[in-house]
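thread: overnight batch results

M.L. [08:02]
morning all. the overnight job finished for the chain we discussed friday. pasting input first so we're all looking at the same thing
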Amino acid sequence: MSVNYEKHEPVEAEAGLSSLSDRRNAFERLTQGRLDRAYRLAATILDGDSEAQDAVHDAAVQAWTRWSSLRDQSRFDAWFDRIVVNVCRDRLRHSATSSRKVAELRRDLPADPADGVGLDDALRRAVGALSADHKIVVVLRFLDDLPIEAIAIKTGLRTGTVKSRLHYALRELRAAYDASQRSGGTDQ
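M.L. [08:03]
and the structure it wrote out:
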């Protein structure tokens, strides 16, 4: 992925980096090794490969334009991850319909694969019905297997807020799944 830096020049010059070329080189050094990880994060949260690629591109452009606001380059990972998560959140909020692959949410699938089809479909619909904020914490917790503290860092939320969102999201998932099971798995 490449970013056209001339179109998205940062508002302020980075302290200690005198030219656009110096800023570009420093930025590229930090982002190159992190784009694959950012893409995996976005693909986990969003619905498709192209949607994830677009989100990571948008996040890279935002990071470039806000480059001067990063005070400590050693915190780049958390800073960039937060931008990626926020871009994904915005995309989820603006998406009218959103569904996720959630087979990974259920680690202990039934021995008979045919039994798991209804389960996967019910979970997919239930996760798809979550709000963007709830969906992000569920995905980060159960698909990325992150602890609460790491989710708080990635999202810029307090740990208590992450716990609360996770609690309410799981309650919604249970209710939606139970309703789907009561209706025979045909509930849309």
